[in-house]
Prior knowledge:
The structure holds two protein chains of two kinds.
Chain A: H1 7-19, H2 25-44, E1 59-60, E2 70-74, E3 78-81, E4 84-88, E5 90-91, E6 103-104, E7 110-111, E8 116-117, H3 118-137, E9 153-158, H4 164-176, E10 181-188
Parallel strand pairs in A: 1-10, 2-9, 9-10
Antiparallel strand pairs in A: 2-3, 3-4, 5-6, 7-8
Chain B: H1 7-16, H2 21-37, E1 43-49, H3 55-64, E2 70-73, E3 77-81, E4 90-93, H4 102-115, E5 121-126, H5 132-143, E6 153-155, E7 162-164, E8 171-174
Parallel strand pairs in B: 2-5, 5-8
Antiparallel strand pairs in B: 2-3, 3-4, 6-7
Amino acid sequence: MPFHRSIRVRRNRKEIRRSFDLQLTPMLDVLVIILVFLLKTAAVTSTTFTSVAGIELPVSESPDVPPESLQLIVTPEAMTLEDQRIMDFVQSAASVGTAEASYEFARGDLDEGGRRVVPLYDALVKAREKAELLRAKSKARDADGNPLPFDGVLAVQADKRIAYDTIRKVMYTAYSAGYTVFRFLALRKDF
Amino acid sequence: MLKRPTSRRKSRNEAIALNLVPLLDAMVTLIAFLLFSMSFLAFVSIESPVPVAATDDLERKLDEKPLQLTLSIREATSEIWSPFQHFKPIVLENTPEGEPDLGAIHGALVGLKQKYPRESQIVLVPHAALPYDLLVGVLDAVRLLGPTDEPVYAEDERTGVDREVRRLFPDVIFGNLLGGA
């Protein structure tokens, strides 16, 4: 007798069904709004520049969005080229024992009268050679059928406390390694 | 004999039950992917080429005597000058906080842009201890025209019609990069 159920059992079953009736529509509404916001933001920030922990970036009003290029990050403690730590600064003798540590180049890291940073130079030359090799292998050619020339652009992301003297050494080293255009990165002011 | 529930009522209930769970799954996956892949830092860039020192260029410059607008940032003052003395050097004191007076530098440069509207280049010579933060501030002050600045007009070379200039001196070259103080 399949239809011989008591009224109480039927009512209980109905109540159980009602208790599982989750209202998903408001949740979907919220998710759609989040999704649209994220898609719009992702479309605006097309570059893949990353940063490192602890860096304090300056703010700029420049409207120029940086295109993709080789990226150097300079923090008060170290330098990183394309996510690879290439050198560490050493704590200056004057700041030992003081509350705020300051860092400088190790004596062996500089040459050409203290203007060129040796580990950075080596890393930049290696990166340039790699870029030139990739361009030689690429099918993209100029009007004469030659591989596209090396663009020589270096994007520099530096901590706001870094002195111009360090930036100048970086630029001189990059120039020695064949880089001719510098892009100073900063955070957008209204962001 | 028991009465069987009508099939009409049953079918109406089934039609209302929309299965939103797969849709929710897809949306949550998409949101997670977007959150992980996107960057929350909005970068802007300030471009500067390396200065090129050539003998021919030097001879040409001595002949033509270009404006070669130069901004020297020193420890206590800032100076806007021209090596070929196109105008009287403008010396600006630092702010009481000991920082370059960016507003005064910008104001003086806007005045010079009115005088030389077709000039786009400036040579920047900062002192060694200038923090990067202030360097970026100086670069903004010399490169960009603000909405409150007096409009600058320059004659378009092709059409001969005056056109509003959008940037102040956008081509910044570091003067002491290859040597000097």
